[in-house]
Amino acid sequence: MSALLIATAGGHLSQLVQLAPRFGIDPTNATWVTVPTAQSETLLEGHDVVWATYSSPRDARRLVEHTVEAARLLRRRRFDIAVSTGSSLAPPFLAAARVARIPSHYVESATRVDGPSFTGRLMSAVPGVHLYTQHRGWAHGRWHFAGSVFDGWGVEQRPGRPAPKRVLVTVGSAKSFPFTSMIEAVRRVLPESANVLWQVGDADVPGLPGRVVSTMTAGDMAAEIRAADVVVSHAGTGSVLSCLQAGKLPVIVPRAADSGEHIDGHQDEIADMLAARGLAVVRRPAELQFTDLELSASQVVTQATPPPFHLR
Q: How many angstroms separate the CA atoms of 123 and 94, rounded?
């Protein structure tokens, strides 16, 4: 089966990489459409990739450009199926796929706990696209529940109570949304003896103890997560999945939209969902304590084989 897999870099791409085998699609034998970042270039190294320009879902000019790019791609090549987990690349490429009569599927991000995103609402206006939510609670009408990227994960107590000495702090790959409040909260609770790596994105926080970087490749990030005793992260799906894959229970701090840390409040929703599943220690910046890091270090994440994700 020749598959076209579409996702903006970050959590959307991480989810598609995780879900593709559950769709019955070989990720190495598919064509991917995404934007070039350190994460996407590492994750998709050796894959067939069509690189697109980054845009927000509300960028009308880029939407037109991506629609033209999609039409050109589909004139040159034929696909048996098209699947997207969002965000801004989903509407132009899936709409073009439907015009070409390719079976098309849109899987809403796991971050959308209570209803579809702006992109999801756009996709619901495109006739013939199959729509999926990763939360059973709002599966109705055209939106179907077939599973979640967080299926199969569990948590067990580590023997003893290891002290967190090596800490990774990551704000993810979001552009133009500094997460200074989380960084300052972690600095407030860490002991001076901690060995810390700070991935700070666009934030400007001088004087942080330890090593400070703006971004990391997916490979370097995965290695640092494996080496850390504790990971403190924003509530981004990609970052959380990377922690779970490494067997780490993350301490996650959701970004607040009213503080200009994200475009909306969906990180609060996913944080609450992960806490309910027992897959994260969730704290807001003012609530964070060193005992939260100790709790995280005392747990190990396990994974069972998740069920197939049946596309209609």
A: 8
Checking DSSP bridges between strand 104-107 and strand 299-303, what pairing results, if any?
A: unpaired
Query: Architecture of domain 154-303 in CATH?
Result: 3-Layer(aba) Sandwich (3.40)
Locate 106 and state its tokens. 């849109």
CA 170 to chain centre: 13
Q: Does domain 3-145 have CATH number 3.40.50.2000?
A: yes
Q: Which two tokens stand for residue 293?
A: 């890091």
* Strand residues in 64-140 grouped as ranges (E): 81-84, 104-107, 130-133
From the list 86, 144, 104, 64, the residue with the least C-alpha distance to 309 is: 144
Structure tokens at 276: 């309910």
Decide if 289 contacts 259 (C-beta within 8 A). Answer: no
Please tell me the pTM assigned to this model: 0.85
Cα first-last separation, the chain: 15
* Distance from C-alpha of 25 to C-alpha of 101, rounded to nearest angstrom: 19
Longest dimension (CA), the chain: 60
Give residue 265's pLDDT.
Answer: 65
Query: Quick check: helix, strand or coil at residue 168?
Result: strand
CB count within 10 Å of CB 128 equals 13
Q: Which secondary-structure segment (H or E) carries 73?
A: helix 60-76
State pLDDT tens for residues 138-195. 999 999 999 999 999 999 998 776 788 899 999 987 777 788 999 999 999 998 888 9
Beta bridge partners of 33: 6, 50
**Beta-sheet strand order (sheet of 31-34):** 48-51, 31-34, 3-6, 81-84, 104-107, 130-133, 143-145
How far apart, in whole angstroms, are the C-alpha atoms of residue 115 and residue 111? 10
What is the residue extent of each domain of the chain? Answer: 3-145, 154-303
Q: Do domains 3-145 and 154-303 have the same CATH topology?
A: yes
